[in-house]
């Protein structure tokens, strides 16, 4: 008997047992669909978080003054020294590294913003023009510290602040007072909303030197360094540590963190979560497998006399075995394909219902779902097929 | 050429041993027309099943066309069944979900014949057995006579040299039964060895050789000189 004929004959058989076949296919399909949809959900969540993180900057290295992890063993602390400040000169020194694409020194404080007879406290970021590309901040209008205006008393207003203070008309060029200093509004940030800690719609950004004078400090809160490529993150991190150690009298008094490390942790957690839910969904496939086994066993006992006939007209046991295996394969194959389609459709609905969630089923999950369906179907049919093949032809023929 | 010598077949029924066949010695030349008769439980079907390789004797020797077929493997025996034996049963044993044409085609599929040739052979056979207008009918949509004709067509499509028929007319009315017998006899006339198990004396008498069985033994075996 040829493989093609085995496949065709078994397909004919399952088509003729419509209801039964449909039920099995449906059970299989739901299992596969569950795997696909749940992994889409898990992976969507992972990608959502990853995207959120990269929206605050890519290939970022953050330099923080002080040695956060090992304060106790910091030798200076024992001698009553405070760790060295992180200065603008330190930041400029980092810029000499070839791997560094750009950097932005950062100071943060709170000050009173006053304009047009309004007054309120705002979060103030002090930095350079590079803060915009480094932090992926976009402007709705205007500019910040363009060429030739590097030290101008410019201020960027968060979207909400701009609307609050100047409800109508052009904001650019308006005068505002921040603490006791005067600034000219040079631009307005695009609305962004909450992003990792503070609401960028309610901040102002001013040049770093003005910020340092305003807050009466010469040290920096952070240095944000953007590396040219992701691959250079680790090596650059080391270089930065080396340069700053040299500049700080051989003291390791800074902390260098990469956003990647944080991201990797989230990535790991969410991947594990995705695998977990996929595993749970796969259990429903095992249940479908048991259903296949049950139905196949019933089918074998119902078709006993037919099996006897096939043997009588010269089918060896192997043919019978293959016929029943092929039936299971068809069922699980159809179940897998239908489940894949259902899963894709479910993921589509998810993305439709939650547009922010990139709920795309990962390829590995779809493949795994179909494969598991296939394997369970095959495993579940091994016993019934073997039982059919083993039947004694005389007894089988005499079964009604 | 069928050669049986000292064939024994014992079944275990609870703690009782049933000697279904108790030392059968028969020789059937090719082209013979044999009827096997005897009371119920005398071992007729068991004998037919052993001749058709559906069952194997517990002891004794069975040679088919000169070779010891009981020693063959399961796969080899299946091959012999396909090539040399055509079975016809009392209850037809047609596959209910397949049409007449598809039922007839089954042995060709098992034999691994190409679809194009299969189609040709099925059409020829349908024509030969006067079933062409029933080709797309399922067994449930056919009369008993038509079903048995379909079953005979299926048994004969690979042109085996031997037909084993176990009560071929047991489930059909007299008129259709006569038609089925006429068909089988026509096959015999074209050279096929025909072995019929029956309770029907009239039918049994038509054969050229009458074997009578009782309690697993052959009690008489007489050959007509000619017919
Ligand atoms: N699988 C089996 N297990 C136990 N006993 C069996 C089996 N097959 C047949 N027998 C017994 O063997 C004996 C012969 O049975 P067989 O079917 O050959 O009789 P038969 O002549 O065909 O009868 P009938 O005319 O009723 O068909 C009977 O006593 C039967 O009960
Ligand atoms: Mg019988």
Descriptive notes:
The complex is a heterodimer of chains A (about 400) and B (about 230). Chain A is an alpha+beta fold and about 400 residues long. Chain A has helices at about 5-15, 20-55, 75-80, 90-95, 130-135, 160-165, 210-215, 235-245, 260-300, 305-310, 315-355, 365-390, 395-400, and strands at about 60-65, 100-115, 120-125, 140, 155, 175-180, 180-190, 195, 200, 205, 220-225, 255-260. Chain A folds into 2 domains: about 5-50 and about 265-400, no CATH class; about 85-250, no CATH class. Chain A contains 13 helices and 12 strands. In chain A, the strands form 2 sheets. A 6-stranded mixed beta barrel of chain A has the order 2-3-10-5-7-6. The two termini of chain A are about 25 Å apart. In chain B, a hairpin with a 2-residue loop joins strand 1 (about 1-15) and strand 2. In chain B, the strands form 2 sheets. Chain B has a 6-stranded mixed sheet with strand order 6-7-8-3-9-10, with helices on both faces. In chain B, strands 2-1-4-5 form a 4-stranded antiparallel sheet, with helices on one face. Chain B has one domain: Rossmann fold. The interface of A and B includes residues 2, 5, 13, 309 and 312 of A. The structure holds adenosine-5'-triphosphate and magnesium ion. Magnesium ion binds near residues 44, 45 and 166 of chain B.
Principal-axes geometry of chain A comes out as: elongated
Strand order of the largest sheet of chain B: 6-7-8-3-9-10
Mean pLDDT of chain A: 87
CATH class of chain B: Alpha Beta
Radius of gyration of chain B: 18 Å
Characteristics of this structure?
heterodimer, A: 400 residues, alpha+beta, 2 domains, two-stranded antiparallel sheet, 12 strands, 18% strand, B: 227 residues, alpha/beta, Rossmann fold, six-stranded mixed beta sheet, four-stranded antiparallel beta sheet, 7 helices, 10 strands, 35% helix, binds adenosine-5'-triphosphate, binds magnesium ion
């Amino acid at each position: 008997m040829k493989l093609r004929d085995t496949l065709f004959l078994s397909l004919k058989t399952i088509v003729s047992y419509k209801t039964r076949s449909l039920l099995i296919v449906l059970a299989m399909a739901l299992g596969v669909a569950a795997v696909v949809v749940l992994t889409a959900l898990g992976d969507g969540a992972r990608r959502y978080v990853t995207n959120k993180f990269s929206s605050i900057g890519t290939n970022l290295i953050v330099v923080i003054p002080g040695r956060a992890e090992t304060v106790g063993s910091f030798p200076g602390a024992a001698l009553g020294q405070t760790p060295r400040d992180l200065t603008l000169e330190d930041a400029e020194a980092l810029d000499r590294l070839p791997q560094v694409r750009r950097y932005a020194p950062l100071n943060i404080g709170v000050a009173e913003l006053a304009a047009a007879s309004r007054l309120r406290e705002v979060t103030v970021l002090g930095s350079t023009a590079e803060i915009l590309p480094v932090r992926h901040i976009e402007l709705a209008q205007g500019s910040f510290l363009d060429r030739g205006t590097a030290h101008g008393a410019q201020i960027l207003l968060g979207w909400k602040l701009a609307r609050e203070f100047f409800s109508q008309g052009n904001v650019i060029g308006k005068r505002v007072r921040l603490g006791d200093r005067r600034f000219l509004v040079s631009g307005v940030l695009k609305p962004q909303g909450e992003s990792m800690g503070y609401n960028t719609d309610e901040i102002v950004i001013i040049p770093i030197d003005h910020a340092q004078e305003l807050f009466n400090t010469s040290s920096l809160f952070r240095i944000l360094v953007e590396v040219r490529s992701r691959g250079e993150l680790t090596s650059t991190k080391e270089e930065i540590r080396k340069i700053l150690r040299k500049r700080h009298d051989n003291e390791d008094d800074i902390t260098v963190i990469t956003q990647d490390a944080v991201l990797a942790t989230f990535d790991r957690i969410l991947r594990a979560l995705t695998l977990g839910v996929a595993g749970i969904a796969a259990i429903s496939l095992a249940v479908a497998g048991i259903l296949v086994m049950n139905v196949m066993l019933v089918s074998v006992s119902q078709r006993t006399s037919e099996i006897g006939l096939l043997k009588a007209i010269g089918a060896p046991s192997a043919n019978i075995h293959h016929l029943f295996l092929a039936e299971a394969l068809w069922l699980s194959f159809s179940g897998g394909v239908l489940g894949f389609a259902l899963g894709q459709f479910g993921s589509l609905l998810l993305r439709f219902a939650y547009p922010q969630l990139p709920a795309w089923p990962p390829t590995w999950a779809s493949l795994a779902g179909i494969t598991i369906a296939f394997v369970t179907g095959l495993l579940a049919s091994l016993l019934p097929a073997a039982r059919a093949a083993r039947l004694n032809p005389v007894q089988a023929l005499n079964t009604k | 050429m069928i050669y049986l010598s000292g064939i024994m077949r014992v079944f275990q029924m609870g703690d009782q041993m049933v000697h279904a066949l108790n030392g059968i010695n028969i020789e059937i030349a090719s082209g013979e027309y044999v009827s096997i008769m005897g009371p119920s439980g005398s071992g007729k079907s068991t004998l037919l099943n052993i001749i058709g390789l559906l069952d194997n004797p517990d002891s004794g020797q069975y040679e088919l066309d000169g070779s010891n077929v009981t020693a063959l493997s399961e796969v080899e025996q299946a091959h012999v069944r396909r090539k040399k034996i055509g079975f016809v049963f009392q209850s037809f044993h047609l596959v209910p979900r397949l049409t007449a044409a598809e039922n007839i085609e089954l042995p060709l599929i098992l034999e691994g014949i190409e679809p194009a040739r299969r189609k040709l052979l099925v059409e020829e056979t349908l024509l030969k057995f006067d079933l062409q207008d029933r080709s797309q009918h399922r067994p449930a949509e056919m009369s008993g006579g038509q079903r048995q004709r379909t079953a005979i067509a299926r048994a004969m499509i690979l042109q085996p040299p031997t037909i084993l028929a176990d009560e071929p007319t047991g489930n059909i009315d007299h008129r259709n039964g006569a038609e089925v017998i006429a068909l089988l006899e026509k096959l015999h006339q074209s050279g096929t060895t025909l072995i019929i198990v029956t309770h029907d004396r009239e039918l049994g008498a038509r054969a050229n050789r009458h074997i009578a069985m009782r309690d697993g033994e052959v009690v008489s075996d007489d050959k007509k000189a000619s017919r």
